[in-house]
Amino acid sequence: MPINIPKQLPAGELLREEKIFVMEEDRARTQQIRPLNILVCNLMPEKEKTELQLLRLLGNTPLQVNVTFLNTATYESKNVSKSHLQTFYTTFNEIKHRRFDGMIITGAPIERMEFEDVVYWQEITDIMDWAKLNVTSIMNICWGAQAALYHHYGVGKFELPKKCSGVYSHVITDLTVDLVRGFSDEYVAPHSRHTSVSIEEVRAHPDLRLLSYSDDAGVFIVQSKDNKQIMITGHLEYDATTLADEYERDVAKADNVEVPINYFPNDDPTKAPKNTWRAHSHLLFYNWLNYYVYQETPYKWDFVEEEIEYHI
Asked: Which parts of the sequence are marked as the site Important for acyl-CoA specificity (predicted)?
């Protein structure tokens, strides 16, 4: 089934070139089907790249998906045009009366800042609190994962001695959990961050379940025991070249930048990297949409017995 996107969204043409079934809003309205409504709070600076990465994964399932992009009102991104934001994005005040089947909160390049020092922290916490009542399942990625662990469960972050950047091997703690159904016993995934969270603190928390970790990169996939919150500290959504782009950006800003671990062939930045995590990326998003969104969300939110409204 297709992913439904706004007409003229730049990512649409690239998705079609990749043979991903894309349907524009006008045609989608004519179909008698209940699509999943997914809200994406996109905090990444290069929003169009993140749009493409997430839409590619959301569009590779048998489910029809409507995507709404959310931007912060308290901070305007400097790396995307105002016209793009005005055309394809909405703000929290414009959607907080609605309910969504799923939500994604992305990473953001602000991890070295204290959470309370982030200019849009109050807005993000308002969104996270609203989502607990008005969204069936929330996937939090990288900084979004650390923010969710901190806000919902009091699990803080700490700065690493050096940036965790590269492609790391991970293990699964329980292969019977639906989110990691079909995963290999060991698999690789990209990380790109300056901070981390304590694996001991996550394991000891009564409301959390550690599903996957790396001996080198630490905590990777955490799930709340009520299945509401999913925290992914790395970037399974990344393209093959994303870490290379970040490496080149960092080199342009500073000397002695380390090459991402296990990424470039023979650790040579002049050689093209390969995407060795693609299969597990698609599997993770497929499992999330199927087991945590589609099979759990009400067919009609209006029929939920207990009325749950959130007011700001």
From this structure: 111
